[in-house]
Amino acid sequence: MPRTASPAPFSTAITTTGPAVTPMAFVHAIVEAYARQGRSPAQALALAQIAPAALQDPAARITAAQMERISGAAMQELDDEGLGWFSRRLPWGSYGMLARASISAPSLGVALKRWCRHHGLMTDDITLKLTLAGDSATLSITENRDLGALREFCLVSVLRNIHGLACWMIDSRLPLQAAQFPFPTPPHAEVYGVLFSGPTTFDAAPAGIRFDARYLALPLRRDEQALQQMLQRALPLTVLQYRRDRLLAQRVRQALSLHPALIHNADSLATLLHVSPRTLHRQLKDEGASLQALKDEVRQARARELLLRTSRPIKQVAEAAGFRNEKSFIRAFHAWTGLSPAEFRRQSPPLA
Q: What pLDDT, in 10s, does the model give residues 228-269?
């Protein structure tokens, strides 16, 4: 049977196009994997057009396409999708098998739990775990043995891979709130801001990524046929930057409700959500929403609640709902309901 691609090791590449930003340290890790099998990486390096002299330059970078080529060649030549990370090889197709075991799950949360459990059947060198704490979910890696020189490449790759696969399964961006790693800050630490959205902390165990737990309830939007197609071209899919965020509008509503001051500051709102202001507006548009409409929705809900649950003066309600003055609040409220705030309060029964 012809071999099909597997999504795992390619997730360390940063984007399918663009400048050379992938650190040479990851190439060194692949070269080390060859050395452990007593084999030469020359053919893989040539295929990726990586000059041997570049290996001696710690500041050198390669493109995502180059990383994809050398990773794919190494996996096939070494017949190890773990690229030397673990005490035993992960034969070609191992990660595809994990994806098949997860694709029938009813939700992302169930799929990720299956992935973590089944990964432990392939190797006990690391343990993957999905945990919940409040509104956040964390995917963490416990190291059960010394991963040595391949430690960084292993931890980064495993987390990037499962994050990329999660995005693919729900066909959505899955923005990260934070990432952390147990090793010291590497010389190429600036790359982590691209590899992992959200702040990255070093010298913090265990390795892991944290994200909004609401994504776990999203249903999978891929089936077995889509999986077959994905495994044929896993490289570009695992590094694809998804434009769609299926929970962005909901996250914006929550942020505006919890932080009313953000009503007037799109830049601060975008920073809180770990996106640029431009990306925030574009992704909301992709979802058929707009920031202004969401602001109005949150302000109207807040105003209605205060008018019905409290006896606060209209001026205080306006301020609490995020309006700069009472006049603009009255004008907006009339546009929403056809009534002034005072009329609305008189005509509506109070909430229990």
A: 887 776 555 454 566 677 788 888 888 888 887 777 788 888
What are the tens digits of pLDDT across the range 155-191?
999 999 999 999 999 988 898 999 999 999 999 999 9
User: Tens of pLDDT along 13-39?
Assistant: 444 345 778 899 999 999 999 999 999
Question: What's the CA gap between 220 and 224, in Å, rounded?
Answer: 11
Q: Count other C-beta atoms under 10 Å from residue 230's C-beta.
A: 22
CA dist., res. 325 & res. 318, Å (int): 7
On whether the CB atoms of residues 155 and 125 are closer than 8 A, the answer is no
Residues 17-37 as b or e (16 or more Cβ within 10 Å = b): eeebbbbbbbbbbbbbbbeee
**Residue 185 identity:** T
What are the domain boundaries of the chain?
A: 9-238, 248-347
Q: Beta-carbon neighbour count of residue 139 at 10 Å?
A: 23
* Residue ranges with strand state E in 181-258: 200-201, 207-212
> How many residues are given for the chain?
352
Q: Are 150 and 137 in contact (CB under 8 A)?
A: no
| 240 Cβ contact partners less than 8 Å away, ≥ 6 residues apart | 16, 164, 167, 168
Residue ranges of E strands in the chain: 22-23, 61-62, 126-133, 136-143, 176-180, 200-201, 207-212
Domain 248-347 sits in CATH at 1.10.10.60
